[in-house]
Amino acid sequence: MSDHLRLGNAYCRSVLSLLSAQRPLDLRDASEVLLQNRALKQANSRHFLHVFPKAYVRGKPGAEEVNSVANIALIPADLNLRIGAKAPSAYLAAYRSGNPEWDRTLNAHVITDAARNAMGEDDLLAFIDHRATMLAELAQKVVRMPD
């Protein structure tokens, strides 16, 4: 089973559905991200932010993991374009100061303290490890049958 962003893959679609169900918030101001189903069906959707952008990680350790579904966040298309190839530490610092609901915003993207620390240190592999663990725990909670 692949963990890379392939919309024809049931695993990938399940993770994206989990992320969408968390009602992701705009990094700039904590407003709700309005997601359109048709945009989420396209692999090149501008709603799919590579938390560690492809152009940023090119040539760096772990670059082969950039397309991991754990490296994807759902954000407004215009924000994705503004982030471009910036390092996570750079765009986090830029948007944190203007967002009074910063912790709630990152929680809505299933980005925990450990994953935030990895972003602040621009450590792709640590980020994917932490976020994948949280996504797996979230999936277990969602599918757990009542006793």
Overview of this protein structure:
With 147 residues, this protein is mostly helical. The protein has one domain (10-142). The protein is 48% helix and 4% strand. It has helices spanning 10-21, 37-40, 54-57, 77-83, 88-96, 102-108, 113-120, 124-143, and strands at residues 48-50, 72-74. α7 (113-120) runs antiparallel to α8. The longest helix has 20 residues, at 124-143. The termini are far apart. The relative contact order is 0.18.
Question: Which features would summarize this protein structure in a list?
Answer:
single chain; 147 residues; mainly alpha; two-stranded antiparallel sheet; 8 helices; 48% helix; 4% strand
Order of helices and strands: HHEHEHHHHH
Supply the helix-strand structural class: mainly alpha
Average pLDDT for all residues: 85
Q: Quick one: how many beta strands?
A: 2
For the largest sheet, list the strands in their spatial order: 1-2
Task: Using the alpha-carbon principal axes, give the shape.
Answer: globular
- Helix amount: 40-55%
Strand content: under 5%
How does the major sheet shape up? Answer: 2 strands, antiparallel
Question: Which helices and strands occur, and which strands form pairs?
Answer:
Elements: H1 10-21, H2 37-40, E1 48-50, H3 54-57, E2 72-74, H4 77-83, H5 88-96, H6 102-108, H7 113-120, H8 124-143
